[in-house]
Amino acid sequence: MSPAVHSWPVIRLTIGEGEIVADANGDVLTYPVLDDTSAADVAADAAAEACRRLSLTACRVQGLTEDGEVYEMVVDAELGTLEERENTTSTGTAGGTGAGRGSGSTRSGSTTARRRTPARRKAVLWGSAGVLAATVGFSAFYTLQDSTAEPVATVFTPPPAQLPVPAPAGWDTYGDWTTPMTGSTVRAILDSSGQPVSVDGSKLIGHDPRTGVERWTRTAPFRVAQLAMFTLDGQSRVAAAAARELVLFGDGADPIRVDVPKDGTIVLDGGTAPRVDLPDKRTLIVAADGSTSVRVVPAAAEPIEALGDDLVAADTRSGRIWRVTQDSAALPAPAKLPAPSVGAELVTVLGSVNGTVVAAWKTNNNTTTTTIGFYALGDAADATEATQVGIVDVEGTDIATSDIQVDRENGLLMAGTLLVDVDAKQAHRLPGAGKLAAGYAWVTTNTEQLRINTQGVTETTTDTARAAIPDVITEDGKAITRAEGSSDGLLYALTQVAPRPTATPTPTSAPTSDPTSAPSPTSTVSPKENP
Prior knowledge:
Helices cover 3% and strands 42% of the residues.
C-alpha cells in the first residue's frame, strides 16, 4: 500500500549544473552530481532526505531546471524513489503524457514507485546546461532494466552531533555536522576554496562548510598521518604524508608521488612548501609536480623555513641567516641580523614566517622587557641580506627557545608565553603558555580556557580548562574540531555563539622606534561566557 501524499508541503528540487538543491520548508540540502553518479539517483537521494527531515514518508516534489522546465513528482522516503506524480496534466508542447522543452513546461505522468536497486535505475541525461531530460518513453523518469549496472554511491548530509568534551571558547558543543576523522594527530585543514578537509584512513574528503556534504575525495596509497595545504608554483596542492611517504593532490584524482629517502624526515609545517630534511645537512624542497630541489644547510645552522624553492637557515645563537637559493655546495655569505639598538644582545632567532625572520633581543641591561625584531631577507644568490623592518618591546624577559609554533596562514608565531603577529609587527605577552591554532592563541589555566586574538586581546573564555581547540575556522564561523582524548574518532563542525560584551582591553605592546621605551600594560581578561 502506497503512503498517503498530501498536497502540502512541497519539496522544491532545483536542478543546476553539477549539483541538485532540495529545499524542505527552508531546510536546504545541497547534493553534488559526481562523475560516477546519475542525476536521477542524486535527485532521488536529495528528495528522500528532505522528506525525512519533514518527518513524512512520502511528499510532493517540484523539480525546476535552469531552462524553466517544471517536474511534478512524488518521493517515497522509505523506498528512496522519486517518480512522476499521478493524475496531473501536461502543459508542455509535446503530445501524450510526456512534456516538451518549452520554458515553464510541466512534466507529468504515472509510474509505480519501486525500490532502487543496481539493476533498476532511472534513465536520465545530465546535459552541459544542467538540464534534466527524459531519454525515451512516456515519462520523465522511468525504470531501465540493466543487469550490468553498478551500485551508485549515496550522497548524504552528515548528521549533527554533540561534542563529547567541552567546546572551544566562543563555540557551542552542538555540531551542525560530523564526519569520521582518523587519529588524534591528523589536523583538519581548509582547501583552496575554504572547504574543510577530513581524513578517514587513507581517504581525504572535502566538505561543504555549511552542510558537511562531500564535495571531493582523494585516496592516498597509505594511511595519512599529516595533512597540509600549499600553493606551489602558483598551483594549489594538498599534501598528505605518513612516516616515509609523501604525496600531493591537485585537480586530478591520482596522487603525485614524492621520492622520499629512507632516512628523510618529512616536514609539512616548516614553510610555504613541503620539505624533507636529511641527516647529511641537506634539505629537499618539494615542487608542484612532486620533484625536489636540493638545498645545502650550513654546518652551524638549522633549517627554519622553506620559502618557495629557497631554504632559510639560521644559527639561532649568533644571529647569522642564510637564504640558500641554489643546489650548490658554495653557500651564500650569511647575513648578520642588525641589533635594534647599540649594545643590544641577541637572545635567540625565533623563526621565519613567510620570509620575515623574527628575533628576540635583550637591550641595555633592561630586566623588564624584551625587544622583538623583524627582518626581511633579500634573494641574492651570492650573499644574504637582512633588513630590519620593525621592532617592538614586550613585557617580560622570559623567551622560549624550543617548541616554537607557527601559523603561516595567519602570520603568527608563538614562543612560550609570547605571541608574535608577524604581519603587523606586533608582540604580546600571554597570561600563560598555550596553543596556536585557527588564527588564535588558546591559553589554558587551572580553571579556564582563553581565546586570545592577534592583538593580544582575550575575546572570550570558557569555564573549563579541558576545552577542545579547533583545527580551523570556516568563513561562516564554524569551528572544525576534533575531540582530543575521546574515542569516537569524529570531526565536528561546531556552531559559533556570541560572547558576552567585555571591557575594552589595552594591548600589551605597541610599535616603537625606541627599544628602551616603557611597554604598554597587560591586556585585561574578559568575563566568562554562560556555562
